[in-house]
């Protein structure tokens, strides 16, 4: 990546706090996303990664803290609010409708209606959704034998690809991905990582949560480290080693190779 110090962040979260009862899940975390980058958010189990991402994508509300997007302070009451800013999320459990086919899943909650009288009566424009879904997935390099088969019949990797394609189809600015390759084999993982690169190359920033450190270094431009609900280090991926990342996740070392 080019020198990130002169770039304006696309998203800047500061002092984010989230408590669940007595559990202090996120304790004043900061997080930064620059335009068009792949940034990994790493940290040990329970560090607060998923909780932080849920707050940045509108799924839950922070107790404290500020989120600045494109230079203006924002507050997301729900995922639809975040979507209006071009922010999409691939959650750990994917949230696909298993009995629907990939095209229907790509348009889930945003179905196209046919125009004219029929549209007014609420008929779905199935043909147009199928065509666009097929084009979108082929643009992203997602290959499915039968695009009309229910998602339940797809492999884990294919499901993951559909979830990523759906996010990529609607995202304009940022996609958050919570452990998108955790359940995948070597080949499928490669495909999903390739998909992530294509999304980034199309100008959309990707925030990747992963426990796979070699993968993090391979695919990311930058890495931010969360420990006990706070950011403890940031790295340029090209300047960091797996040992650097592991040390910062576990030792509470306050400075990584800071920019
Ligand atoms: N809905 C909830 N209710 C109560 N506690 C929660 C809830 N969600 C998360 N927590 C707690 O908040 C802390 C942070 O959890 P979170 O899921 O954000 O961690 P994580 O970094 O994503 O971990 P992992 O790598 O295991 O996915 C944990 O102690 C967890 O038990
Ligand atoms: Mg998590």
From TrEMBL:
Annotated coiled-coil segments of the chain: none
Entry keyword set: ATP-binding, Nucleotide-binding
Q: Which PROSITE patterns match?
A: ABC_TRANSPORTER_2
Every ABC transporter domain range:
11-253
One matching Pfam family is: ABC_tran
Q: Which InterPro entries match?
A: AAA+_ATPase, ABC_carbohydrate_import_ATPase, ABC_transporter-like_ATP-bd, P-loop_NTPase
Which GO terms label this protein's molecular function in UniProt? ATP binding; ATP hydrolysis activity
Name of the protein: Sugar ABC transporter ATP-binding protein
Q: What is the lineage of its organism?
A: Bacteria, Bacillati, Actinomycetota, Actinomycetes, Micrococcales
